[in-house]
Amino acid sequence: MTTTPEETLIIIPTYNERETIGTIIPAIRTVLPGAHILVVDDGSPDGTSAIVKEIAAKVDGVFILDRARKEGLGKAYVAGFRWALDRSYRYIFEMDADFSHDPKYLPDILSAMNENDLVVGSRYKSGVNVVNWPMSRLLLSYFANRFARFVTGIPVRDCTSGYKCFRRSVLEALDFDAIASSGYSFQIEVHFFVWKKGFRIAEVPIVFTDRKLGASKMSSRIIREAFLLVIWKLFFASFLKRKR
Ligand SMILES: Nc1nc2c(ncn2[C@@H]2O[C@H](COP(=O)(O)OP(=O)(O)O)[C@@H](O)[C@H]2O)c(=O)[nH]1
Ligand SMILES: [Mg+2]
């Protein structure tokens, strides 16, 4: 690996993750010592932010970005990306707080960055690698991904993955104001724009294990947003580009 950990930032969006945030931070640092961690908290009423502040007071390279209210994953990530671009990080990760994204894959993803601009931790790269999700949730995710790929043409098998690493230049090239969505569709939109701009994208297989602590923030509104708004918006964007 030719990267140094201080060049790497891991952004974790949180909403009510007090049961996991205190253990995921040291787990990340064990695997990637020296990597910086930014938690973007949307005013969690359960005190997630206070736990992060306690850790940050003792450990270098751990930061909290407090936002006033819950505005969805997309807005939290955009705030985190802007924070990262104001500093000198070269590799910027997205990662969940709930251990669904096992920190053990961080070095594999980072190594793959040597030849790529975006590397996605992928549940569907080789078969289906999801543990403990109810069948209904798995089918929804799997077919939503196939549908999104079919409609938009994005060459990523796990379009909704929230475990990934961007090269700084990718985030610099993204027009954050053009990314309207807030839930899983945020991930689809980001993949779409990165692909359309011609960046190199790769997927690294991961096993995704459903959270054992805390609660999912998935909602039917988020699913509706992904299906109706983004996929069709991206379909027409893709179609119009091909026509021109
Ligand atoms: N800041 C912020 N984080 C969020 C929001 N919604 C979800 N998250 C975080 O995004 C990550 C993934 O959410 P999760 O509920 O685990 O989704 P699931 O794994 O698809 O069920 C977790 O770290 C959540 O705490 C939000 O509105 N704001
Ligand atoms: Mg989760």
Q: What does this entry look like structurally?
A:
This protein is of the alpha/beta class. The protein has one domain: Spore Coat Polysaccharide Biosynthesis Protein SpsA, Chain A (Alpha-Beta Complex). It is 42% helix and 16% strand. It has a 7-stranded mixed β-sheet, sandwiched between helices. The protein has a two-stranded parallel sheet with strand order 6-9. Helix 5 (135-152) runs parallel beside helix 8 and helix 7 runs parallel beside helix 8 (220-243). It is globular, with a radius of gyration of 17 Å. The model has no long low-confidence stretch (mean pLDDT 92). Magnesium ion binds at residues 96, 98, 100, 211, 216. The site of magnesium ion has 5 residues, from loops.
